[in-house]
Design a protein that fits this description.
13 helices, binds magnesium ion, 256 residues, alpha/beta, homodimer, binds adenosine-5'-triphosphate, 7 strands, 41% helix
């Protein structure tokens, strides 16, 4: 059974892209055929893997608009075992253009339908909003991973996010569920981080990943080289944390 | 001549809200009548000033929808000399609802028209996207401050942001101009931060603020108390940095 997971949180800068990129590379390296879908007009997941977003003939935009079959838009084996459905800034116009399109909330799900069975896991990196692009990701996915920065303002948006997930589950995608909540950018030197973790544990008692990602500049440096953390600095704390998270994900997905 | 400045950058988590809140409080404390407009559905600027977004009868949403005059939605003197046009999560629906509304790009500009002359400076905090809410802010404003995190991924979106500003200037708001680019979350211990600053200086040679905001956890703590940095920790590096920025802003606005 293919697993489709969206990385979503409308709060900006909480580690959605960093998690999507590093988890997808980890899964592929562990021998699981993986697809990473970048549905953010910023195309950060695309560039974090070293792909030049300005040089792409087709992107996820063309698949959403129905102009090209998704197989024309895919980049095969950007890493061994990892395909990418890339984004570019043309996607910025899609939110307004899709409003009046038929099945506007299901364009991504429909586009992925013909290729879904090729993958064991599909990860979708979302933009920092709850607009139509994120709604498309949340109807294509069956599960959601919510990265949460260990800071106060990141807590503020959780109620709104959970309400939106409930709405989508009720109206558009009944199997949708919160797979896990991931604490990111944990700075052990501050009291604030530990307080936020406690607060989130109360809010999502059974869904917080055991693994907590520390704040470390290596994760901010890796994208400038177009590399996942395992390729940029394999022995770093950051690489160990994302490998631990990857193993925890595999365990919970009952893949090994 | 009233100055209207939008804090915009579609990259998430770069310090838009932190800058909007601390600059508006600084300006009001310096004796300049200031209005802060929160047009982000996350309503982080509203809560950073200690306002309970769930207890608001009217918000900027009602003013944009034309259901209420803006004077009914304003919170007067949230700090001496500072009014707030608050947001709440109802704003999340506005992007789709506004698509078919008349003058959809000018709803905020039209709403602010009757009260504009009461203020010397108006600051608008934008969501992390280039959708209709941000477009509304960029037609209501005459100038833009672009906060940029000192990290690689924050550089990626600058071309897209500048292209969008040009488009809005040409089609919707001819006086629109980049007032300044503010480097935020500068971590002196990393090489990455200095490299990003150099890169941005090349991209925006004459528009970078002299003041650079350091990465300091005090700025992440202050919002959890509903306080601006000057109220939370007046002698901190963070308070000094935002006071320096405030003075630089006043100097460039030719206010004193
Ligand atoms: N654990 C970490 N420690 C330090 N820096 C990190 C960490 N995780 C991510 N970063 C950096 O923080 C910034 C924000 O992370 P990222 O871009 O992954 O967040 P996002 O939620 O995808 O942002 P957006 O909302 O704009 O899509 C990036 O510059 C990234 O390199
Ligand atoms: N200079 C700084 N040093 C450390 N933390 C900071 C600094 N500036 C802001 N922060 C914290 O970083 C996080 C992101 O900042 P903020 O929310 O202001 O960014 P934003 O651009 O408004 O985000 P969004 O894109 O979600 O609207 C917040 O938790 C904030 O408290
Ligand atoms: Mg991202
Ligand atoms: Mg903000």
């Amino acid at each position: 059974m293919r697993r489709v997971l969206a990385l979503a949180n409308q709060k900006g800068g909480v580690g959605k892209t960093t998690t999507a990129v590093n988890l997808s590379v980890f899964l592929a390296r562990s021998g699981h055929r993986t697809l990473l879908v970048d549905i953010d007009p910023q195309a950060n997941a695309t560039s974090s893997l070293g792909i030049d977003k300005l040089a792409l003939p087709e992107t996820v935009y063309d698949a959403l608009a129905g102009e090209r079959p998704v197989t024309d838009c895919l980049l095969r084996d950007v890493r061994p075992g990892l395909d990418l459905l890339p984004a570019s800034s043309t996607l910025a116009g899609a939110e307004v253009e899709l409003v009046s399109a038929p099945r506007r909330e299901f364009r991504l799900r429909d586009a992925l339908e013909p290729i879904g069975s090729e993958y064991e896991v599909i990860l979708i990196d979302c933009p920092p909003s709850l607009g139509l692009l994120t709604v498309n990701a949340l109807t294509a996915a069956r599960e959601v991973i919510i990265p949460i920065q260990c800071e106060y303002l990141a807590l503020e948006g959780l109620v709104q996010l959970v309400n939106t997930l409930d709405l989508i589950k009720r109206r558009l995608n009944p199997p949708l569920d919160v797979f896990g909540v991931l604490m990111t950018m944990f700075d052990a030197r501050t009291r604030l981080a530990a307080q936020v973790v406690q607060e989130v544990r109360r809010f999502f008692p059974r869904r917080m990943f055991r693994t907590i990602i520390p704040r470390t500049v290596r994760l901010a440096e890796a994208p400038s080289y177009g590399k996942a953390i395992f390729e940029y600095d394999p022995s770093s704390r950051a690489a160990q944390a994302y490998a631990e998270l990857g193993r925890e994900l595999l365990e919970r997905l009952a893949l090994s």
